[in-house]
Amino acid sequence: MAQKGVDTMLRFCCPIACCPALVQVKVQVQVQGKEEEEEAIHSTSPSSIFHQYLAPMAPPPPALPLRLVFISSFVLSMVVPAITSAAEHLHPKPNALVLPISKHASTLQYTASIGRQRTPDLVPTIVSLDLNGKFLWLSHDSASHNNSSSAQSRSDCSGKAGSSSRRHRSFIPIGNAFSKMISVGNLSEDTISLHSTDGLNPGSVVSTPTPFLFFSVPEMLTRGLADRSRGVAGLGRTALALPTQLSTLFNLSRKFGICLPSSSNTDGVIFFGDGPYDLLPGIDVSKILVHTPLIQHPRHRGGHHEDDYYVPVSSIMVNGRPLPMPLISSGGTKISTTNPYSLLETSVYESLSRIFIEEAVAMNHTRVRAVAPFRTCFSTRASGDLASYRAAMPVIDLVMQSSEVFWRIFETNSMIPVVGEDVWCLGFLDGGRNHEEGAGASIVIGAHLLEDNFLQFDLHLSRLGFTSSLLLSQTTCANFNFTSN
Predict the structure, then answer these.
(1) Is the C-alpha dihedral spanning 438, 443, 445, 449 positive or negative?
(2) d(Cα 259, Cα 404) in Å, to the nearest integer?
(3) Residue 342: which H helix or E strand, with range?
(4) Which of 316-325, 326-335, 359-368 has the highest mean pLDDT?
(5) From CA 474, how far away is CA 462, in angstroms rounded?
(6) Please, how many CA atoms are within 13 Å of residue 274, restricted to the half-sphere of its CB?
(7) Higher pLDDT, 82 or 183
């Protein structure tokens, strides 16, 4: 890649805030065989790291005479549309893209497999999903399989580049949201491939028309990930996250829909682009969405978590009984796939647990001893006169911007069965006071609560569309038809 191309690429990615407020980094620059090493303190923007340590750009060429400029413009006006038309014929624009999602039984992570082009084959790469992740990162061993006949991986971790790229090294801090480990990553690019879809079935495999930007990291950063996972795919609201890059590269709507499976034996689905999102038996879930705004963290605007997905939960109700309002509004409500269970600030948890127990006991449920990490547990055995009948557990409503907009949580998402015992527990954990897991959020909606619920993130309108449990509509997240027409 010519130096000017590198500079342009880095200007594109610099809006993301992926460094701490002040970061001390050691940057190595390798240009034409000469290597230097410097150490300095840098500010938040990664562009300050990149631009200071890449080789200076060559001076601009002298201006062309006006007549040549006119002729060149005329020629381009004739040639570019023809090239564009030919490219669209060879690579027709998909309406949307689709990926299956798997649940890993032991880590409770959700993974997807993306195709990466390795001449002449398409190599699948498994990645864990982080809803609030800022970008895609992959371990060195999976990011540097390029060979001399392919220049699609422009830069591997050792600074080696493809034949069309100039050698350079540019590192930024990268964190693993699952293990909390931190290392450094090198900006790289590659061609990735996914299935197109009409919303009903998967279509042909399409590849990114221009390289996809990601960060390659040391192998050690993959510790704590699901088996065979080689990195993390970020789905956040940044320029380098998967949804934004794919929507830009394929000219898709800036939306994605995600449906997490409730079992490790079935696949869920993620769509990039607009609906329809059709689940068997012929249910377009894009037609049953309830909408609420996506907001910023109420106390951390401009910080590292500014672009995380927050929703305006104004109150919580258990069987119609509200929790105290001041407890809910202080820290905001964040949606997360890296937390398997929902987290509540201590005062919110204690209030929810107390009211839930009162309602459950009133419905003839028997409370039993706690099973770690849960504190509020009940017997699943039926009791009373109807020995074969067990009453439903209390329902929980997350009330959004008005009393008419609420996310209803039934027992399939609020309760966690304890394996080997006739016990299930309330799937909310005490996150402590101002807990760090939620970056100061009062509530973190964890992944178990999201299973078999469909969520659409509209990045253009900053809006979340959601369903309650899809079981009410006689379908599940496992019901996308992944067989071709």
Answers:
(1) positive
(2) 24
(3) strand 342-344
(4) 359-368
(5) 29
(6) 8
(7) 183
Selection from 294, 350, 311, 340 nearest residue 441 by Cα:
311
Q: List all residues 6 or more positions away from 14 whose beta carbon is below 8 Å from its beta carbon.
A: 45, 46, 47, 50
Partners of 380 in beta bridges: none
pLDDT at 272 over 60: yes
Please report which confidence band the pLDDT of residue 382 belongs to, taking 50, 70 and 90 as the band edges.
low
Alpha carbon distance 98, 258 (integer Å): 10
The residue among 227, 212, 219 whose CA lies nearest residue 106 is 227
Per-residue pLDDT of 276-303, as tens digits, reads 999 999 999 999 999 999 998 766 555 5
In tens, the pLDDT along 413-446 reads: 999 999 778 899 999 999 887 554 445 688 999 9
10 close to 188: Cβ distance less than 8 angstroms: no
Structure tokens at 58: 């060559």
Element housing 85 (H / E): helix 66-90
> Position of tokens 């599940």?
476
Which pLDDT tens digit goes with each residue over 385-394?
Answer: 444 456 789 9
Residue of 55, 63, 228 whose CA lies nearest to 138: 228
Tell which phi-psi region holds residue 440, choosing left (phi > 0), alpha (psi between -120 and 50) or beta.
left
d(CA 183, CA 48): 19
Both tokens of residue 421? 């015992």
Please say whether the beta carbons of 101 and 129 come within 8 A: yes
Neighbours of 478 (CB within 10 A): 21
What span, in angstroms and rounded, lies between the C-alpha atoms of 169 and 166?
10
Two structure tokens written together for 408: 């209803």
Q: Which residues pair with 396 in a beta bridge?
A: 318, 409
Q: Which residues contact 5 (CB under 8 A, 6 or more apart)?
A: none
The answer to whether the beta carbons of residues 130 and 175 sit under 8 Å apart is no
